[in-house]
Request: fold
Amino acid sequence: MREEQIEKLRGVVRDCVSKHLYSSAIFFADKVAAFTNDPADIYMQAQALFLGRHYRRAYHLLNASKIVLRDLRFRYLAAKCLEELKEWDQCLLMLGDAKVDEHGNVYDTEDCNVVYLDKDSEDREINISAATCFLRGRAYEAMENRALARQWYKAAIKADPLCYEALDCLIENHVLTCEEETNLLSSLQFGPEDGWLSSFYSCLIKKYDKESVVEAKFREVEKESCNSNPSSPSFTHTLKNDTDLLACKAEYFNQCGEYQKCFELTSDLLEKDPFHLKCTLVHITAAMELGNSNELYLMASNLVKDYPQKALSWFAVGCYYYCIKKYDQSRCYFSKATSLDGTFAPAWIGFGNAYAAQEEGDQAMTAYRTAARLFPG
Reply:
């Protein structure tokens, strides 16, 4: 088969992936790899298998190719397969030996050669080392080694500030103190074009600074603009109405005790994006503080229907029962939330609050101590 025909088949595979026709992608990727035996085509075939949820087969294909021993991307994809199979020890073994210190500095890294796999791509790529650090963090978190997970997440965001997932895990799991978050952010090496991202990240971390400082950070991000029409310099868009930024601002109002302001903002945001879960969490806590049991009932019902396996859903049910002063039931649902996700801090706090509401001080303190131990931030 001629090279131009093979290139057309590669295009078919990419198009099948973009249209989520994974069986078709697997079929054609297999033929391309058979014709060429090119590492890039073997990798493309493994990607198609991974996206089609054939994790064991994708792992076997990658492991059978000797390239997996010398190319970090092959190792990373093989480790992703093992992540999906919940084989955490093997996942870490595949990623190789490396040490990390408390500040997220990595030592003893192995040879990180990377074959240039995407011949046509001009996109900016996230550092593969950042992705491997993040995956190590995920593995250690799954193995309940929170200290090492925290260090690897820090290593991931330091290796590449575009690795937002690592920062998200650190913030959402409350594993860093306010000071540690600030220090981590100041250590990140942003590119000259990423000033807006640095400002955005500064809004995501804990908001215990003076009111004027926090609000100045929001204004700085909101001013960030993009001219979307070259022929009309005045026609610009900004991040002012970005849902993540609005959710962040709502969280700030919640922390300030301005629950009505927070509730109004989250209500507007959820009209635009009803499934924005970070906003949903803040909306629930504001509704509980305001004693809005009707809203809590509706939110809890919808969440349990749409996300029965998420801790947030059962936390919402617990909040509803707490709001109507049925504390035994609320404890039951807060407990269910923590059993689904032991890192879901609001449920531990709710657990303690429900005990405290019935003046069961010892049990309340036990729940609060657990929260303080698990979530130093």
Summary: The CA atoms of residues 4 and 10 lie 10 Å apart. The mean pLDDT is 89. The longest helix spans residues 3-18.
